[in-house]
Design brief:
This protein is an all-alpha fold. 80% of the residues lie in helices and 0% in strands. The radius of gyration is 28 Å and the shape is rod-shaped.
């Protein structure tokens, strides 16, 4: 019953629950930017995005010459950026108000003095994931403390179980969407590599045809495609790695704070009973 009851509660973490819509919107945005901004006719000689050259080294026109792989890479890059912002908001809500280190120290002092009212007050002010887990454990502490039907070992077990259930409720929300960012770490680089290979194939095909000026245009187009896809793929992978590691570290910090306070709660109960 306790597990079912805990499962019906909502996490304190704000976040996007259906990332598929984020990916679809990023795909639409990426395609539109590629087709209508990068591929605008005024950026190319003779107003022809397909056969014309980029005018005066126009960077966006050069990006357009990267081929159909570019909007796929743009989708990956935009998805990483949007989900990174989403995770920033989620971690902000999970952290609550004030400094977590000071909160942990305050809870420790309250527990050492057996001042549960102060501990609950600190949780109410702090909010966030850590405060939510600690508050639920303190409530359970008070419940089992006055329950004469349970042995001391059962009471400690009940407090530990409450800590585990409260933590299990929050962890999925903290880790949500991070697997997508982790996947894009590799996927972005691999798609960029695919575009690079396709661009080089076009370049070597132009060299093999041996038709002079016409081939130099095809050669430059192939090289542009290769380099644009390489750069976009590397940028996507690098940003995804940084984002994933940053937010994983944030989650580890919150988890450590929960474990530290959980140990103090159990230890305080053992000392006073």
């Amino acid at each position: 019953m306790a597990t079912k009851k805990a499962a019906t509660k909502k996490s304190n973490v704000i976040g996007v629950k259906s990332p598929i819509w984020v990916i679809l919107l990023c795909a639409v945005a990426g395609f539109c930017f590629y087709q209508f901004v990068c591929g605008a006719p005024h950026r190319f000689s003779e107003g022809d995005p397909v056969n014309g050259h980029p005018l005066n080294g126009d960077l966006l026109a050069t990006v357009y010459k990267g081929g159909f792989i570019v909007p796929i890479l743009m989708t990956c890059l935009l998805t990483v950026i949007v989900l990174s912002v989403e995770r920033f908001i989620a971690m902000w809500s999970a952290n609550g108000k004030g400094n977590t280190t000071k909160f942990v120290a305050g809870i420790k002092d309250a527990l050492e003095n057996n001042n549960l009212a102060l501990a609950k007050d600190l949780c109410a002010k702090k909010q966030g994931v850590v405060a939510s887990v600690v508050a639920s454990a303190i409530i359970k502490y008070e419940q089992v403390e006055n329950d004469d039907t349970l042995t001391k070992e059962k009471k400690v077990e009940a407090i530990q179980k409450q800590l585990e259930e409260a933590t299990a409720l929050e962890m999925p929300a903290l880790q949500q969407n991070l697997p997508i960012i982790a996947t894009l770490t590799t996927l972005g680089t691999l798609v960029g590599l695919l575009g690079t290979v396709m661009g080089m194939i076009k370049s070597f095909a132009a060299l093999a045809s041996g038709d002079g000026a016409a081939d130099s245009q095809a050669l430059s187009t192939g090289i542009s495609e290769a380099l644009v896809n390489t750069a976009t793929g590397i940028a996507t992978g690098a940003f995804a790695v940084i984002s994933y590691n940053y937010y994983s570290n944030k989650i580890d910090t919150l988890t450590y704070a929960i474990d530290e306070i959980g140990f103090c709660i159990v230890n305080a109960f053992n000392k006073t009973h």
